[in-house]
Amino acid sequence: MTALLTITILILIAIAIWQMTKIFQLTQVARENSQVATYKDNDFQGKLMYVFLVFIYLITIYSFWAWGDVLLPESASEHGVEYDRLMWISFVLIFFVQTVTQALLHYFSYKYRGLENTKALFYADNDRLEFIWTIIPVIVLAGLILYGLYTWTNIMNIEEDDDSLVVELYAQQFNWKARYAGQDNVLGDANVRFLQDYDGKNLVGIDSSDPNGQDDIVVQELHLPVGRQVIFKMRSQDVLHSAYMPHFRAQMNCVPGMITQFAFVPTKTTEEMRMLPEVAAKVQRINKIRHENSQELIANGEEPLDAYQFDYLLLCNKICGASHYNMQMKIIVESEEDFNKWLAEQATFAEVISIEK
Amino acid sequence: MSAEAHDDHGHHHKETFITKYIFSQDHKMIAKQYLITGLFMGIIGIAMSLLFRLQLAWPEQSFGIFSSLLGKWAPDGVMDPNVYLALVTIHGTIMVFFVLTAGLSGTFSNLLIPLQIGARDMASGLLNMISYWLFFLSCVVMLGSLFVEAGPAAAGWTIYPPLSALPQAQPGSGLGMTLWLVSMAIFIASSLLGSLNYIVTVINLRTKGMSMTRLPLTIWAFFVTAIIGVVSFPVLLSAALMLIMDRSFGTSFFLSDIFIQGEVLHYQGGSPVLFEHLFWFLGHPEVYIVLLPALGITSEVLATNARKPIFGYRAMVASILAIAFLSTIVWGHHMFISGMNPFLGSVFTFTTLLIAIPSAVKAFNYITTLWKGNLQFNPGMLFSIGLVSTFISGGLTGIILGDSTLDINVHDTYFVVAHFHLVMGISALYGLFAGVYHWFPKMFGRMMNKNLGYVHFWVTAVCAYGVFFPMHFVGMAGLPRRYYTNTAFPYFDDLADVNVVITIFALIAGAAQLVFLYNFIHSMFYGKRAETNPWRSNTLEWTTPVEHFHGNWAGEIPHVHRWAYDYSKPGHDEDFVPQNIPLKKGEEELNH
Questions:
Q1: What ipTM goes with this model?
Q2: With an 8 Å Cβ cutoff, are B405 and A148 in contact?
Q3: A194, B148, B239, B348: which is deepest, by most CB within 10 A?
Q4: Cβ of B504 under 8 Å from any chain A Cβ?
Q5: Could you report the per-residue pLDDT of B308-364, keeping only the tens digit for each?
Q6: What is the CATH architecture assignment of B17-252+271-543?
Q7: Residue B154 near residue B170, CB atoms below 8 Å
Q8: Hey, are the CB atoms on B346 and A149 less than 8 Å from each other?
């Protein structure tokens, strides 16, 4: 069905293109078969340039109107607020420059289209003008660079204090695991060499001779306490992966053979995030789409789709193989109490391997 | 047959079919060979993108075209995830290297350097010929890799190890990846031979009076591009060789501590981050290797068709040089979140955002060139203006991606895809089209049909924005690139209709390229015969006769007396004054 639709559309387009060719041929008084633009061509093409400017503005406005609400909701981390502000400033600047320069480019193209009596001005240089449009970007960019670097340093300079929670994110084709440091808040040594110990129960390759590792907790679902700095230590056992947590404005590659890190402070619990109007609206929209798609599935005798509710996501964002598109882990941000309660229920490494013994 | 017959007569000047059309050492023929090979690769590269766009718009649906083109890789017409990655990888590789590096730079550097500087040929015709045939060979190897049992390389065009190094990691990292690396090694050799030739030719073979400050901006762009290529391509070659060593001879340059398929591998002490550095040391200058020739072509086409000197010639040359220099020290902005030291991120943010300055100067100078011009809207002119438009639209989002902070959350999302397709993909393609429409009369002695050219431009221009503008939103929604489908995340369900819109625009854009192909092939044989100087241009290539022969000028090579941009100069009857016309008495030479 879709294929048929596509083919029909393509045929229609082909006809449209052919018709446009005809129109162009008609607009040109074919006195001679010259393939160099005539005044008539210049007039028509120049006007199209003007129309194209309108098109650029319209597609910009339409995109915001139609898809503005697919954008990520407000940040759920402390540094994310700063991130969003810098993004907003950059966007205002970009839209300003885009609007003005595209207008100049296309308006000049229209205004100075070559007609019968037009002549060009021999104008090759103007040092002052060029100085101005060199120095303005210099000043604007200097501001952006300084602000950007200030924010970057704040985000990337991770200060570990006693209160921070250390969590290891462990990547492999094609799933994530998380390791909590346990009572001592120190992650035990680990290496891929230990993965086969204990019949594969040593999921992230903890060195069992390191006492720091005994109380480590390995889980498949990431829980984070709200309002407390989380320091992520990333590892990968096979290929490059990237731990991408878009709602927290956080991302870091996981590199086999080294430990990378990133830190942030979650500021909204999952429940709070679900209550945000923009998130609630998005979820409603998605469920409407899922409901519609389910109708089709039911008609085909298949299972309908589950209703969706919002959860924070950890995605893989570095190409890692066939199931790259489905390498994910659920993140739950909750109160300190709930978090501690949950953590206490999980088995430590020592417990996991002693069951084995 | 005919070749042997001619050889029997022993006339070395006589050109046989083989020496004229196949193993030619004439730069004009080599340029045409590059162009046609590049266009052929372009068709394949673009067709691949349409295939994976179908999958993205209607994920995991069955398409007849999949089963007929992909065969066993699309069981029941549904594309396999590994094939999706392979298509993305080969699309990127082909478009960046084979179309926009060899097809664009190879074609126009070869065609224009000797013709515009007033030389009878390249410094070494033999090296030039070898350069083309190595390129051809690399195309054959790359296309051959598509027919490998386990499929072609599928680790992304950046082929980051360990994914690309370990056949256990994905099927494409077997023989397919070996062929990819071999093909690229040959390609780099070809590119180096070509670039060295361009540099030597520009330095040594300029005609009398053609000082560096009188060079057309096309030549400046090709010259500087060749220098960037010579500086950076060898680094990719070394990375490729080291990767081959890791893959086949057990070294550990890029690999360490790996457990895959239930097995601990022996690799110790290497780092994938090292590969990223080496790759992007070429990879980023590569963006400018692709873009600078397109900008050079635009400068020339814009000035000619505006009937006006290019505005700020010296600033244009200076910005080419500045971009070239900066392009070699910004590679780290691809690696802000690779795990390298955050302080390095600061340095690369600084150098990266600096590049916006010469780029802005170029954009403003183009716009001012149009101001008070007498614009002749030939198809080449439309594509040049289109280039300036997409260069601005795509370049501006670079301010976000070049900022290490902002890069954190949009890195590797569709925002990046939208950015670089506009600023280097579409812009460079427009440069290629502008060049083809403008120099087609020089290459084939015939004119292309302008009406088909207009249709080609407008449909392409609308679709280019139609594809890539909405794509920014997909990226800002947080969707990573190189996902076979986003249906694994209900969170992205509301992106379905954006993806459909993008794909429909892409299909229309693809159809519009057929108009170009038809125009190109038809005009080659049946186009209106070209005059010597159809666009009334100043540069020397238009002083050569329409018919091609080895040596370019029948008599003496013309001398140059002025810069290339004396358009609409007061005191002259015509609105152009070719470079070989001596200054009038009392006329002041102007070359700023």
A1: 0.93
A2: yes
A3: B239
A4: yes
A5: 999 999 999 999 999 999 999 999 999 999 999 999 999 999 999 899 999 999 999
A6: Up-down Bundle (1.20)
A7: yes
A8: yes
